[in-house]
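Take just one protein record:
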Amino acid sequence: MSVMAITVRLLREIEEYRRKGTHPCYPGSVVATLRRTRLDPKFGSLYPEIPAAHWIPAWQAATRRAERLWRETGADALIEGRLLSEEHFQFRGGRARGVGWYVEPERLSDPTRAEMAGGN
């Protein structure tokens, strides 16, 4: 799948989420289980598009970050690594990631199902 196709799919899913109030990966979910993120204030200058020290929907922060990366460095930046670094952001809410949790890889850095099963 091309970078453009992945990006278009992601943006369509985000727009559907905004419109319906449910997460596209978990049909029937409610806003109460929404994944939220908070930017650590000491990293605020790295992410001027995201308010520091405020809890906001993770999809909103990721969208803002993706739009900035797209403008500044191009589409290739969207498939390399995570948009929101765990070192810079706190997360809460969302679906629990138990033993059987798996989502099809969306990034080049995501492990495949076989890699996860093999402990790699």
Observations:
- The first strand starts at residue 36 and ends at 39.
- The chain has one domain: 3-117.
- The beta strands are 36-39, 55-57, 89-92.
- Residues 3-20 form the longest helix (18 residues).
